[in-house]
């Protein structure tokens, strides 16, 4: 593989999670050998995504439409908002099909270490959504990390003046566990047993 | 991930070896979150490869130039041709940097079961390359499978009228082993101990 184009493709693929340099080489070979069936569809899919990708102006999800498919889905319940740290967490919960309300992506977690302050997260946008009315429950689905829990407590304080049920995912999640790595069973249990924030 | 574009991208990635549906979803998320650093380079790399990909008219390698980088490399030795079944085998041997001659890709192996006959492989092209002169050695680097060895013996017969050293990779390869799955140490040993075909 002396060709600079094939090298560049191998390197681009090797940057994906789950693919090291060796499997990236095998993937390139596969793409090259089954060009019509694999390379062209992947290229078209990437082009379509690249062209349409946008951040949802309502919830912060990343999708190929703005507002995103979740915010515009008429079957979803407007009265509950599940707040997550990252888009990955939204996707993990959405895949589990356990929560039928709307979502809100904070864009991170409060962190003294990383210098992440409340104004760095989309907290104002969350408050604005709640001020519009119609929301009965906010589920705080932060990671079970110190920073995630600090963020949940901060949010609970900010929202305490609203007539809302504020809940958080039941603990029992593995300590230090990142939401989007959990299996659906653990997620389901944590969501079903969600409880009001003290 | 309700969006059809993101679903299509996930499915296209899940078809790559080494990526299942779950890791494809994580890869899509990674591409979407680190758009500038990952999605755009991957898209550009795929476009470049898709645009330039061709099969080498001399050796059958797949590359972004025709003739390929190996056939046009002036540092390589014209007097030795290593014959392989598939492009994957050529890449595996080339990566090992153990063979400094040219290559020839047959495009498969003789197989009664799969109905692959000599005229389905690029044997005529190999003979034509040898007839041009200047070739002293042909290394038959077929897989250590029954069909691979049948193919090697057939080729040795076809080439016996030429003033050539015909060698094949030393056995000691794992029985049934596919060349491009072997580690470089095994490949190196097999190549170093290559012997004339009886
Ligand atoms: Zn949205
Ligand atoms: Zn070539």
UniProtKB/TrEMBL annotation, chains A, B:
Molecular functions (GO terms): DNA binding; zinc ion binding
Coiled-coil residues: none
Gene3D superfamilies named among the record's database cross-references: 3.40.1360.10, 6.10.250.240, RecR Domain 1
Keyword tags: DNA damage, DNA recombination, DNA repair, Metal-binding, Zinc, Zinc-finger
ZnF locations on chain (C4-type): 56-71
Residue stretches making up the Toprim domain: 79-174
SMART domains, A to Z: TOPRIM
Alphabetical GO biological process terms: DNA recombination; DNA repair
One Pfam family per UniProt: RecR_ZnF
Listed SUPFAM superfamilies: Recombination protein RecR
InterPro entries attached to this UniProt entry: DNA_Rcmb_RecR, Rcmb_RecR, Rcmb_RecR_Znf, TOPRIM_dom, TOPRIM_RecR
Entry-linked PANTHER family: RECOMBINATION PROTEIN RECR
Similarity annotation: Belongs to the RecR family.
HAMAP family attached to this UniProt entry: RecR
Role: May play a role in DNA repair. It seems to be involved in an RecBC-independent recombinational process of DNA repair. It may act with RecF and RecO.
Protein name as annotated: Recombination protein RecR
Name of the gene: recR
